[in-house]
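Fold this complex.
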Amino acid sequence: MSETVSNTGPAATSSPAAASDNTAQQPQPASREPHRSMGQRLAGLIKRPEIGSIGGAILVFVLFYALAEPFRNLASFSTVLYQSAALGIPAVAVALLMIGGEFDLSAGVAVTASSLAASMFAAQITGNVWVGVGFALVLSLSIGALNGILLIKTGLHSFLVTLSTFLMLQGLNLAITKLVTGNVATGDISDLAGFDSAQSVFASYFNIFGMSISIMVFYWLAFVAVATWILLRTRVGNWIFAVGGQGDSARAVGVPLNKVKIGLFMGVGFAAWFVGMHLLFDYVTVQSGEGVGNELLYIAQAVVGGCLLTGGYGSAIGAAIGGFIFGMTTQGIIYAGWDPQWFMFFVGVMLLLATVFNAWIRRQVTRG
Amino acid sequence: MNIGHLRRGLATATATALIGVLSFAAPALAQSNDKQPVFALISHAAPGDTFWDIERKGAEAAADKLGARLIYAHNPAASQQATLVDNVINQKVDGIALTLSHPDAMKSAVAKANRAGIPVIGLNSGLNEWKKTGVFAYIGQDPVVAGRAYGERLNTVGAKHVLCVNHEQGNVSLARRCEGIEKGFEGKTTILYVNGQDMTSVRSRILAKLQQDPSIDYIATLGSPFAMTSLRAVRMSGRQVEVTTFDLDERVVKAIQSGKIRWAVDQQPYLQGYLAIQSLWLKATNGNVIGGGQAVLTGPAFVTKDNVAQVAEFAARGTR
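Structure:
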């Protein structure tokens, strides 16, 4: 993940992606389309980073569809989607960051920090939850910016920088909550002004085809769409691939490396804020110890979805599919009624299976 | 160098003498009558646990009343909890209140404290094992006993299939609560593990279990925040499932008042923390042994719609 990555490996893998993205920057990208044959287009599609994870998702889906009878109900499916979305929104931002060559271990507790901040600020200072929501947004973006600035100023690996902020935030979440509220969880804010409108924005439910679908699922899709657009259709997208693949060369050709990296960390901050607001308005109170461990799930989803741990390669759609695989697995194990003592083991096995299958498909595709 | 040392020593001696004179009214501690007594509470709590926050408040209230200082430290891993005991022994505290959820792992740490002349009292979990660990007394509620009472109560309300929601897989005392339910309950008990650090997973997994098994008619959560999330899961499933829980907090009390939650088992964590520190003080100053060799029980007490009014105001204050 460091900028000293040589020309081999990830950088080489990333260059086709970056190159094909450059073509998107041509003045008339549409005019190129008719010249590509159906086969070429299919080949282009099949070489996308997320192709392997689609295979993994189908594998997991078929497995649980066959083994777990309740998995076949639409109501169950909406639960799977909800679980995927709650973990998937930060995973999309983390995927962009990883393509840009960095890790963020603080993302899990940053979600909790955001909801705690909004709740306590609203309850103690203003009495209106929307002011708390705004305060939390500023805080989350600042935490992201701080991660980025620390990374650049210290020159340390992002693993170390964000490990430190992860530990600091974990401590601050516990200590400040205790200091402000006298308890280790925030109080009930459902009687404050603006709660109902905030709840309808961040935590409402829709009935579609008899399923109660969380608004988070739609936001998740929106996050994926925007992230994909940024990556594939904008200059910033090219920069992200470039700083992740070959940082020094990117800087040499005029890519604002520092700004891109700080921006990516702030993107994670934004996603953390978004999920934090959902947690607050759906679950009303927040325990200060929550969120620990989720940072690894976000990274895992991005990697299952085709992001390289070394940066420069990956996709937002892949991260979403990675989230979907994880959601199907954790819920599917319960639908299948497997022994609960073995739950984490099964999750591990399924992720390994999906990832090995991903890698196999990707190898088949790139060979052909 | 020596003179400086001597002078500092003299100054300290004078200061201590002064404090000693000034605080003549306060009963003297057996070990040291010239400084503020310091007690330690070492628990197996996970960070941010709401139940342990109340336990700590009780201990702090007792320490305040006694003019003592309280050191609180916690770690859910047995070896690290034992290390915390070593730390406070080295700090030469006047007494240690220690949870015994990993009784065997605490034996050597307790022996070390006893050798150093520091009294250790067991609290919370460890009803069956406290005597062999070397602590002089025990205050608490055994999770198996509480679970069994819980199971027996499920029998009386005609429950058929209870889902025991454990929010921390691998936690000994939580596992024993589910075990106790299994022993006392004549119907079927199913255990579900959820990630207590992530509420979305708690709700999704409970909802999934309700969708998977239509015979579940009661939910037993092992901590109060998870009871509230269970209520949401039940509502989303559209099923008729009663929610019950171990431990209390303000929202659970309100939910009991409005009839949404059938009952909560209260083991009075505030009382456990308070009595533990008070008993250490009595042991140190007057050689008293609380319980006189027997365990002192603080639960299980059931809080239902009928008696919830008695605890409501204290729960709102964050001490029940």
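Chain A has one domain: 10-18+51-367.
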